[in-house]
Here is the input.
Amino acid sequence: MTINQWGLTPMTTTKFDIVNAVAEANGFPQHKSADIVETLLDLIKTKLVAGEDVLISGFGKFCVKKKRERRGRNPATGEDMMLRPGRW
Here is the structure.
């Protein structure tokens, strides 16, 4: 198992893992690190809800896609259905 420079493994990372990595990397207490991570995520969510893209250079781009009405399938029953349009 490899560990990156922030002490995270390349597998699924949770918000808890990110808070711990921020705390260790910066010497912050857990509650301060949690506030920082939560603030960052809130800023990203606010921009996405407003319909704006969020580009973090060197990391990635977050954007909401508009989906038209389309055919889908209920995974529980296998029944065909129409999925309503929306933003994802």
Notes: Helices lie at 15-26, 30-49.
